[in-house]
Amino acid sequence: MRTEIRIGGFGGQGILMCGIIIAKAASLYDHKFAVQTQSYGPEARGGASRTEVVISDQEVDYPKVDSPEIFVAMSHEAFLKYVDDVKDGAILITDPDLVDENEIIDIINKKNFKYYTSDATKQAQDTLGLKIVANIVMLGSFVKATGLISEESARKAILESVPPGTEEKNIKAFELGMDVVKKAN
Amino acid sequence: MTKEVFVQGNEACALGAIAAGCRFFAGYPITPSTEIAEIMSKKLPTVGGRFVQMEDEIAAVGAIIGASWGGQKVVTATSGPGFSLMQENIGYAAITETPIVIINMQRGSPSTGQPTRSAQADMMQTRWGSHGDYETISLAPSSVQECFDYTVEAFNLAEKYRCPVFVMADEIVGHMREKITIPDKIDITPRQMPEKCENYLPYDAPENSTTPMPSFASGFNIHVTGLTHDERGYPSTDDPDVHSKLVTRLCNKILKNRSDIAQIDTKYIDDAEIIVLGYGIPSRSALTAVKKARDSGLKVGYIKLGVVWPFAEELLLEYTKNAKRIIVPELNLGQVYLEVDRVLGKNAKVELVSKIGGALITPDEILDKIMEE
Fold first, then answer.
1. Which domains does chain B carry?
2. With an 8 Å Cβ cutoff, is A50 touching chain B?
3. pLDDT tier for residue A40 given thresholds of 50, 70 and 90
4. Quick one: closest CA in B to A24, which residue?
5. Rounded Cα gap, residues A87 and B63, in angstroms
6. Domain residue extents for chain A
7. ipTM exceeds 0.85
8. What are B47-59's pLDDT values in tens digits?
9. A28 closest CB neighbour out of B172, B179, B360
10. Could you tell me what percent of chain B has a pLDDT over 70?
11. Any residues with CB less than 8 A from the CB of B46 and at least 6 apart, and which?
12. Closest Cα of chain B to A143: distance in Å?
């Protein structure tokens, strides 16, 4: 089975790292096939940016994501920019402090999304005192909400990817993300 | 021990180069190939190699030609605008039979075009971007694993045929990340050195072939020139026979060995009435399209050229002999398509699926073409 994932946010949030860790966990530790791609351009820092991952039981031929079944939005702009071709019935996870629910609820209902929220940025700041790990909090929420990669593989991929000395903080952020994700519809 | 890593195409090219024995990189970083220079600048010094950032791309090729004659395996990496600047020295490498590897992460063009978007529009430039009759070898990776494997292969072919070899990738494959397997043993073609200095003739090569290559300061008093030269390597610019013999051999050492140089993947071609024939990243869309077509009972086959140039005419005629239609997807307005049509167009109708602007051809776009008629 082939699953397409899109994660959008603004440049600097660690969106890209989040996608890399998911794909790494799937391919190196869950022994599936995975391809990670990203938006790449002069607008990447500050503006809307995205990363996409394809995970499959079989070799991934076509590497691009055209209609994701999972959409993670960490900014309002990214939600609006990247939502159009997301599949009806897809899993949506947003950071509700960054994506205004009132403005998107019609789209959520119309597209019949399975809607989850994770206040990753607030949790990273308030609970861990480190806003920069919001992406890893969101990763924890992603693992909990989708079950697409195993928790153990995610931990291994985090440890392999984050800068030395930050392992403990990042694992804490991951665990926090698993706890704070909520089904929202 | 065999190692699995999850890396970007650019990084896989850098790892492949080092695994192939490359210890010298000279270049001028350019999007979307910059990561190759960045990684080589970090890794080469740790394995006893040298990295030099040059003032421009023509100097970069000059430097790798010099280092190759110094006995090193050498590489540079670039994209379209830099590739254009390199062309003069590529011709120099061709006539002096200098093994060099150039990685071109193709981007939207012409000129500075689209720095951050993908294209395959340098495929004809890679053949004859420099002036004159000459032949080189171009490989086209479609995955991160192939970025590694084909870069290794490029070094081996450069040594075997003593010519410039190009890894013609693109922005998508360069920035995409996938798991790759790095084998513990890699086949490496070493530099063939001549044996005796006495009565040594550096360019006394058999027909359709090349000669062992000495390095500077190893006792062989050699003269290396871009002028037409005789067996001794001395300029001989007036004698039509010397020129004809040299340039014909430079071309034929590649063309006459094209079936050996070829790397062709085929799937479902035995009963195929329609064949999708691609290279590089669109061939992954092609494979999805072909599988979908097979699922709906259509006799459609798949061919991927790992080596695009030299064009493997004889093998491809054989593989496509029963096909009625051949579909060529590429990220340009039709370049390799013209060669496919020249060689295979007598037996089959050759059709183009073209896309420019930076996005990858989708499987459905190829499927739509398959369904036509």
1. 3-182 (3.40.50.970), 264-371 (3.40.50.920)
2. no
3. confident
4. B6
5. 52
6. 2-183
7. yes
8. 999 999 999 999 9
9. B179
10. 100
11. none
12. 20
